[in-house]
């Protein structure tokens, strides 16, 4: 699992629970500009995208397109991730807020967004926008069918490809739709209206649309459609002249209207028709009277039931307002609003409760805004304080330790150059001066062996100055025991393997990441055959043979990413290249970490 083949194109910024989406450019050149634009920003496999919450990195595509990829764990393994959609459209539900928030606020609304996550509606399927007690529901996923009979949403908007059957479309007269198109590394919202037998009209801008006081999305197409309906309703209806023939027809029609309104639970219509029917009772007799009285009785039952529920809801709402229970009020308000939409007649007591609700919610929003501003100012002050402290405070213990380890690495590299390279006296003097400065910076992080070698080189350089008449040639260093096969004797079939491994380590250095042998095997495939420990050491000696003497080894990235490799093999690589390896494992780890950081710095722009 060392290579991420999922080709994730979407992520969120800053933290796993963020709702700020971003799209990774697919072009390699555009990826460079993208990395520069978001330098210092982290990318995450967002929870609201249905992701695992792990951190992501950008990966340049040479054969495939550029994409996001998961950071591996220290063992080089990738996290298990259940992203069910990895294309750019998988983040469209998060772009809803960015596209509509300013537009709705300019209309006087205070939108609140909720990304519904249920077993039957995975995250990203439904986006709920609450507008002062009224709700817009966006269906973004074609696998989640809309509930057209639900009273919770004042208007339902369909995403691309979400189906609507022909009968429902005819009954509603229209349905609004939404889709997103890519523009750079962002997604732009487009609204449209679908009419029966005519398809969807997308030929208007978001600024041409509004949300009315009933919580409905009004597009130019909807405006024209409702204007046509209003014109049809203004056409006068011819009434029969004879009062004798009008009576029976009215009673029968009235009975049918009451029954239909009761069936649909249209409370306002039921209440008005019931009152009209009661006035018509004295005019009726026989079967017509029986049918009318039955209809009136059904209307009374429905009205009584609805009034009981309504009184209970207003009583609970009044209690929640008096106790300042904002969350309970927010849960009850949509239910009360639905009753008012069906039956707009309100008592003075109910009107007072609704006014108290508006006051409480308004004060709560204002308090929340004040808290957000105070928190933002507090974060700003803390950042400024941290910046000042970083500018004035001394180097911390951890920073000092890293600096000493880095200096220790310089000491090792300089000693190696003095031993391996043929240098003039002046060059040796210059290097020994650098060696003394590096040893002073390393301080007690140098081992006794390393400090003794520093002293020996200082004495060797000082000796000619004390006896100028006799040129003393430093005795050759005793041959080191070499249990590793010489790189020149590396088997011919491993030469291309060494080149492939060096290329993989260069790539890791440029990406500022460590690696492991398992990850190299997965990354290189058949180009890296199974090798024994001795062959691995021979191979890495060949890989770093061309590394300059004053530079850290590329193979330090392997040691930094695999502690077992560092303790078992990396010491032999250092020894074979004429470098000193600390005996203590903690000291070796510090040296490896310092070398890896230096590799990242050296290869950043190569």
Offer a few descriptive terms.
606 residues, alpha+beta, 5 domains, four-stranded mixed beta sheet, 18 helices, 14 strands, coiled coil
Descriptive account of the structure:
By secondary structure, this protein is of the alpha+beta class. The protein folds into five domains: 10-86, no CATH class; 91-230, no CATH class; 247-358; 394-472, no CATH class; 484-606. The protein is elongated and about 135 Å long. It has helices at residues 28-37, 92-106, 166-172, 220-233, 243-264, 267-280, 286-322, 326-342, 348-392, 397-420, 425-442, 448-466, 495-510, 517-524, 533-543, 556-561, 563-576, 585-602; strands at 10-13, 21-23, 43-44, 55-59, 67-70, 111-118, 121-131, 134-139, 155-158, 175-183, 186-195, 199-201, 210-211, 217-218. The protein starts with 9 loop residues before the first strand and ends with a helix. The chain has 18 helices and 14 strands. The model is unreliable at 235-249, 465-473 and 476-488 (pLDDT under 50). The longest helix has 45 residues, at 348-392. Helix 6 runs antiparallel to helix 7 and helix 7 runs antiparallel to helix 8 (326-342). The chain is 52% helix and 12% strand. The strands form four sheets. A five-stranded antiparallel β-sheet has the order 2-1-3-4-5, with helices on one face. It has a four-stranded mixed β-sheet with strand order 6-7-8-9. The protein has a three-stranded antiparallel β-sheet with strand order 10-11-12.
């Amino acid at each position: 699992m060392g290579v991420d083949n999922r080709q994730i194109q979407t992520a969120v910024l800053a933290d796993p629970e963020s709702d700020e989406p971003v799209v990774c450019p697919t072009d390699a050149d555009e990826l460079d500009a993208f990395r520069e634009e978001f330098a210092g920003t982290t990318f995450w496999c967002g929870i609201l995208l249905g992701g695992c919450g792990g951190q992501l990195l950008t990966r340049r595509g040479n054969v495939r397109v550029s994409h996001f990829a998961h950071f591996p764990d220290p063992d080089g393994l990738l996290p298990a991730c259940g992203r069910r959609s990895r294309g750019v459209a998988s983040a469209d539900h998060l772009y809803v807020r960015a596209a509509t928030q300013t537009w709705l606020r300019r209309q006087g609304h205070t939108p609140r967004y909720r990304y519904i996550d249920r077993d039957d509606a995975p995250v990203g399927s439904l986006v709920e926008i609450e507008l002062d007690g009224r709700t817009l529901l966006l269906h973004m996923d074609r696998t989640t069918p809309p509930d057209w009979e639900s009273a919770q949403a004042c208007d339902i908007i369909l995403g691309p490809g979400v189906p609507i059957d022909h009968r429902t479309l005819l009954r509603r007269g229209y349905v609004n739709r939404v889709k997103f198109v890519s523009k750079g590394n962002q997604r732009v919202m487009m609204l449209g209206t679908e009419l029966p037998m005519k398809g969807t009209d997308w030929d208007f801008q978001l600024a041409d649309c509004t949300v009315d006081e009933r919580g409905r999305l009004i597009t130019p197409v909807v405006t024209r459609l409702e204007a046509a309906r209003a014109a049809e309703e203004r056409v006068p209806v011819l009434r029969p002249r004879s009062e004798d023939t009008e009576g029976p027809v009215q009673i029968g029609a009235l009975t049918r209207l009451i029954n239909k309104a009761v069936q649909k639970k249209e409370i306002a219509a039921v209440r008005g028709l019931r009152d009209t029917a009661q006035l018509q009772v004295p005019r009726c007799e026989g079967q017509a009277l029986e049918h009318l009285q039955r209809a009136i009785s059904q209307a009374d039952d429905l009205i009584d039931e609805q009034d009981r529920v309504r009184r209970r809801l207003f009583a609970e709402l009044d209690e929640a307002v008096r106790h300042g229970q904002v969350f309970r009020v927010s849960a009850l308000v949509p239910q009360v609003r639905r009753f008012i939409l069906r039956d707009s007649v309100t008592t003075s007591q109910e009107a007072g409760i609704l006014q108290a609700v508006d006051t409480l919610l308004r004060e709560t929003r204002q308090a929340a805004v004040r808290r957000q501003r105070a928190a933002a100012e507090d974060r700003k002050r803390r950042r400024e304080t941290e910046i000042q402290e970083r500018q004035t405070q001394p180097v911390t213990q951890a920073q000092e330790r890293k600096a000493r380890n880095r200096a220790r690495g310089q000491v090792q590299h300089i000693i190696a150059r003095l031993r391996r390279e043929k240098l003039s006296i002046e060059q040796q003097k210059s290097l020994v001066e650098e060696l003394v400065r590096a040893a002073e910076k390393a301080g007690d992080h140098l081992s006794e062996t390393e400090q003794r070698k520093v002293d020996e080189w200082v004495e060797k350089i000082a000796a000619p100055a004390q006896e100028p008449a006799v040129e003393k040639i430093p005795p050759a260093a005793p041959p080191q025991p070499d249990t590793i096969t010489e790189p020149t004797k590396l088997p011919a079939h491993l030469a291309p393997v060494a080149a492939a491994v060096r290329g993989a380590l260069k790539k890791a250095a440029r990406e500022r990441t460590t690696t492991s042998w398992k990850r190299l095997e997965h990354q290189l495939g058949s180009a890296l055959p199974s090798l024994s420990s001795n062959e691995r050491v021979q191979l890495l000696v060949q890989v770093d043979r061309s590394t300059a003497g004053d530079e850290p080894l590329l193979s330090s990235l392997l040691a930094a990413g695999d502690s077992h490799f560092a303790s078992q093999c990396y010491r032999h690589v250092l020894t074979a290249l004429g470098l000193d390896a600390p005996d203590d494992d903690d000291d070796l780890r510090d040296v490896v970490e310092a070398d890896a950081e230096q590799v990242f710095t050296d290869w950043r722009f190569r």
